[in-house]
């Protein structure tokens, strides 16, 4: 292997949210197997991820989101983004990266534009089924484009010509969870419900009443795992206790990929990372896209799984207790339906997306590829807290 100061450097530009940082984190791990160093360029929100992100250095550059359409608001945003471009331009002059990779969101704009000005090879990764505003702005200016789903830039031939579908990189814990077969009939029928900070409220309002509407015989077989906001915990737990359905309700699950793998059915929002993990692990889902997103990215993401046969997509306006109960009853009615949906979801999952993206970065940066260290065999996924094994699970 090359000495650390001789190893090429790749800069990853990602906003301070999990949706952008998780795929960047997976790429960083894949690049490390090729003896490629990684720096992260981001905004202040990502400082809380500092120790977790596998980068040798994290650089904060100014960035701003367009908030409002008034001339003053646009001028303020443009000024901050300009400051960010200048800061990134000076940074790259000092650290000389071989390539800069953007993962969307406004914090990726200054570093990618600065790299283009310095004629450093650039690449953007679009995680969603429809390109976001930041990536739409950057796409004509970058060397190459990677996408999580097919056809994202298909309507623009000039951009489609430099686009490659690599899939959405998933974390190692997801790769491990993907080894778990679909749960058998000998276990309680587990439904997992989550939705992030913007989705947990409606899940708390709709799902418990829907479970109460299910036939008594079906309710008796259920085990619920649900994410709920702190302010909703008591009401959600109380609702399940009242109807006698065992439920593990928490504001956050650190082992969420493991929970997905142990579930027969998932009810959730449709963020890019969620859809990528559902596909990689292969679990059927009822997806309720966030309705107010300007780009309607979650609607497009859910549509990819629905088209493959792995999900039911419900608009939030149609997401009522009655409709959800009807969908659950319909899916459970035929024993082969849910396993078939699981297989359909798995059919579009790309477990090695991080390695595919790393290979594309190496090609764009014209880095002489080293023989990558063989990734370790994924260990069996950890059991969730308070796990009780079914009677037929081997020791």
Features:
single chain, 395 residues, alpha/beta, Rossmann fold, 2 domains, seven-stranded parallel beta sheet, six-stranded parallel beta sheet, 15 helices, 13 strands
Question: Could you explain how this protein is built, in words?
Answer:
There is one protein chain. The chain is built from 15 helices and 13 strands. With 395 residues, the protein is an alpha/beta fold. It has 2 domains: 9-170 and 352-365, Glycogen Phosphorylase B (Rossmann fold), CATH 3.40.50.2000; 175-347, 3-Layer(aba) Sandwich (Rossmann fold). The strands form 2 sheets. Strands 3-2-1-4-5-6-7 form a 7-stranded parallel β-sheet, with helices on both faces. Strands 10-9-8-11-12-13 form a 6-stranded parallel β-sheet. Strand 12 (285-287), helix 12 and strand 13 (311-313) form a beta-alpha-beta unit. The chain is globular.
CATH architecture of the largest domain: 3-Layer(aba) Sandwich
CATH C-level class of the largest domain: Alpha Beta
Strand order of the largest sheet: 3-2-1-4-5-6-7
* Terminus-to-terminus distance: 41 Å
Overall, the morphology is: globular
Please summarize the sheet with the most strands: 7 strands, parallel
Helix segment count?
15
Instruction: Let me know the average pLDDT.
Output: 88
List low-pLDDT spans: none
Overall strand count: 13
Approximately how much beta-strand content do the residues carry?
A: 5-15%
Rg: 22 Å
Number of domains: 2
Helix content: 40-55%
Q: State the fourth-level CATH superfamily of the largest domain.
A: Glycogen Phosphorylase B
Structural class: alpha/beta
**String of helices and strands:** EHEEHEHEHEHEHEHHEHEHEHEHEHHH
By CATH, the topology of the largest domain is Rossmann fold
């Amino acid at each position: 292997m090359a000495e650390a100061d001789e190893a090429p450097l790749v800069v990853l530009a990602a906003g301070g949210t999990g949706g952008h940082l998780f795929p960047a984190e997976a790429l960083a791990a894949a690049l490390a197997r090729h003896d490629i160093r990684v720096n992260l360029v981001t905004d202040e929100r990502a400082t809380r991820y500092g120790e977790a992100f596998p980068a040798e250095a994290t650089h904060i550059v100014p960035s701003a989101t367009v908030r409002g359409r008034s001339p003053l608001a646009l001028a303020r945003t443009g000024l901050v983004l300009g400051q960010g471009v200048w800061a990134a331009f000076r940074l790259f002059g000092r650290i000389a990266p071989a390539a800069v990779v953007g993962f969307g969101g406004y914090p990726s704009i200054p570093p990618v534009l600065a790299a283009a000005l310095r004629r450093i090879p650039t690449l953007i990764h679009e995680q969603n089924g429809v390109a976001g505003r930041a990536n739409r702005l950057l796409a004509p200016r970058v060397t190459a484009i990677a996408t999580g789903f097919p056809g994202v830039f298909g309507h623009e031939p000039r951009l489609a010509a430099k686009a490659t579908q690599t899939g959405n990189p998933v974390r190692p814990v997801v790769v491990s969870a993907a080894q778990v077969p679909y749960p058998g009939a000998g276990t309680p029928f587990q439904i997992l419900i989550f939705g992030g900070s913007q989705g947990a409220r409606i899940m708390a309002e709709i799902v418990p009443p829907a479970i109460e509407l299910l036939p008594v015989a079906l309710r008796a077989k259920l085990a619920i795992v649900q994410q709920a906001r702190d302010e909703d915990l008591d009401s959600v737990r109380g609702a399940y206790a009242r109807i006698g359905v065992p439920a593990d309700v928490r504001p956050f699950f650190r082992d969420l990929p493991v929970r997905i793998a142990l579930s027969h059915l998932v009810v959730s929002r449709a963020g890019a990372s969620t859809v990528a993990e559902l596909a990689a692990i292969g679990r059927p889902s009822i997806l309720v896209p966030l309705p107010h997103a300007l780009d309607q990215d979650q609607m497009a993401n859910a549509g990819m799984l629905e088209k493959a046969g792995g999900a039911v997509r419900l608009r939030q306006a149609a997401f009522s207790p009655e409709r959800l109960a009807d969908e659950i009853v319909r899916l459970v009615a035929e024993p082969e339906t849910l396993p078939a949906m699981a297989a359909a979801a798995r059919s579009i999952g790309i477990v090695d997306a991080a390695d595919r993206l790393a290979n594309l970065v190496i090609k764009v940066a014209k880095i002489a590829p080293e023989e990558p260290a063989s990734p370790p065999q994924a260990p069996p996924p950890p059991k969730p807290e308070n796990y009780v094994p079914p009677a037929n699970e081997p020791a």
